[in-house]
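Design job #97: recover the sequence.
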C-alpha cells in the first residue's frame, strides 16, 4: 500500500564519504545540494537553516559525527575521542529546541563508547546514522497511516510550517499523515499557513506537496481564524520539535495560536511526531528551551528591509501548545488521544524495548 504514496523528496544523503544536504534556503527557486566534509560546517548548516525540521536536524547531526570520526581517522589522531566529542558539542550548540538533535547525538555517543579506534568509529557511526535515517522514514510511514485513520473523509485540513520529507529523513510527520490521508481520498483540500518569518509553509510545504501532486491553498497566518470559523476544516495537523512528558508540545511559532483557534471553533488538533521527539526528561512545556532567532528575520524579507530603521524585532522560533488543547498525539508506536502524563507514559515501554 505504501509504495503508491506520493513521496519523492529526500533532503539528506551520505555518499562517498561526504554528506549532501538539499539547501532548503534556496527552495522553491532552486533545488541544489551542498556537500559537507566537516562536522563544524554541518553545525553551521543546521544553525543557518540549510537543513531544518526536528528529525532532519537529528539525522544530519548523526552523519556529521561520522564526518568527525572520518577526520580523526585520516589524521590518525591519538586524541580522536576528544576531537569527536568537540564536534558533538558544536553540533549540540547549533539549535536548542528540537530534542531529536540531542537524542541523535546521544545515540552516536553510545556507539562511540564501544569503539576501540577512530577507524572502527567511522564504520560503526555510519551504520548507525544510516539505520537512523531508514528508521525515521519507516516511522513516518507508520505514523502517517495511523494519523490518516483519524480523519473522516470530506473535510479540509490545515497545517503549519513544514513537516514533510524536507523536515525529516523522508515522507514527513504531519505531512506524512496528510500524504496518507490524501492518497486514501480522506482530505478534500489541504490548507497551509505561510509561516512567517522563514516562510516554511509557502516555500517548502507548498513546493513539496505540489512536487508530489497534492494541491494546496496557502494562507497568511492571520487568515487562519476565518478559515477555521468557516467550517471547512476538520483537523489542524502539525509536527513537533519537542513533546514534554505531560504532552505539552513545542512546535513552530504560531502553533499555539492555531490550537486555541481550533478549540474555539470545534476543530480537532493533531500533533504527529516520531517517539524520538518525546522528551520524558522534561516534565512539562515550561522546561522546553525556546530558540530566539535574529531580529533581522522579522525585520527583513528576502534580505530587504520591511520595517523602518529603529524598529525592533521579537523572534522566538517556537511556542508551546498545552496538552489540554491537543486531541491526539500520533506516533509510530501508537496514537495517544487526549494526551496527558499517564497516557504518554504508556509509550515508554515500547520505546525502551526498541
Ligand atoms: O525552524 P524549523 O523550520 O526547524 O522548525 C520546524 C518545525 O517547527 C516543524 O514543524 C517541526 O520540526 C516538526 S518537523 C517534522
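Job complete. Output follows.
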Amino acid at each position: 500500500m505504501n509504495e503508491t504514496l506520493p513521496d519523492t523528496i529526500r533532503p539528506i544523503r551520505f555518499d562517498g564519504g561526504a554528506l549532501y544536504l538539499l539547501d532548503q534556503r534556496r527552495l522553491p527557486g532552486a533545488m541544489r545540494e551542498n556537500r559537507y566534509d566537516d562536522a563544524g560546517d554541518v553545525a553551521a548548516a543546521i544553525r543557518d537553516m540549510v537543513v531544518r525540521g526536528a528529525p532532519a536536524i537529528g539525522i544530519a547531526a548523526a552523519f556529521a559525527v561520522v564526518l568527525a570520526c572520518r577526520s580523526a581517522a585520516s589524521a590518525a589522531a591519538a586524541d580522536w575521542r576528544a576531537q569527536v566529542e568537540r564536534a558533538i558539542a558544536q553540533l549540540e550548540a547549533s539549535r536548542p529546541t528540537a530534542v531529536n538533535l540531542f537524542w541523535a547525538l546521544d545515540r552516536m555517543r553510545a556507539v562511540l563508547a564501544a569503539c576501540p579506534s577512530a577507524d572502527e568509529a567511522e564504520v560503526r557511526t555510519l551504520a548507525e546514522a544510516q539505520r537512523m535515517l531508514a528508521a525515521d522514514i519507516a516511522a513516518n510511514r507508520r505514523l502517517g497511516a495511523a494519523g490518516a485513520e483519524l480523519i473522516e473523509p470530506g473535510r479540509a485540513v490545515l497545517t503549519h510550517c513544514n513537516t514533510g520529507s524536507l523536515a525529516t529523513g523522508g515522507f514527513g510527520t504531519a505531512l506524512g499523515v496528510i500524504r496518507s490521508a490524501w492518497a486514501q481520498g480522506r482530505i478534500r483540500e489541504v490548507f497551509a499557513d505561510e509561516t512567517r518569518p522563514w516562510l516554511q509553509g509557502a516555500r517548502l510545504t507548498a513546493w513539496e506537496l505540489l512536487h508530489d501532486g497534492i494541491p494546496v491553498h496557502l494562507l497568511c497566518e492571520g487568515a487562519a481564524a476565518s478559515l477555521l470559523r468557516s467550517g471547512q476544516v476538520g483537523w489542524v495537523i502539525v509536527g513537533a520539535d519537542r513533546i514534554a512528558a505531560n504532552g505539552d508540545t513545542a512546535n513552530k511559532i504560531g502553533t499555539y495560536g492555531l490550537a486555541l483557534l481550533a478549540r474555539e471553533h470545534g476543530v480537532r488538533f493533531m500533533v504527529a511526531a516520531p517517539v524520538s521527539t518525546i522528551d520524558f526528561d522534561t516534565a512539562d512545556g515550561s522546561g522546553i528551551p525556546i530558540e530566539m532567532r535574529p531580529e533581522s528575520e522579522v525585520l527583513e524579507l528576502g534580505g530587504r528591509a520591511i520595517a523602518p530603521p529603529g524598529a525592533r524585532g521579537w523572534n522566538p522560533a517556537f511556542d508551546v501548545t498545552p496538552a489540554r488543547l491537543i486531541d491526539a498525539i500520533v506516533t509510530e508506536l501508537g496514537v495517544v488521544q487526549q494526551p496527558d502524563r499517564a497516557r504518554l507514559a504508556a509509550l515508554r515501554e515500547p520505546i525502551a524495548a526498541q
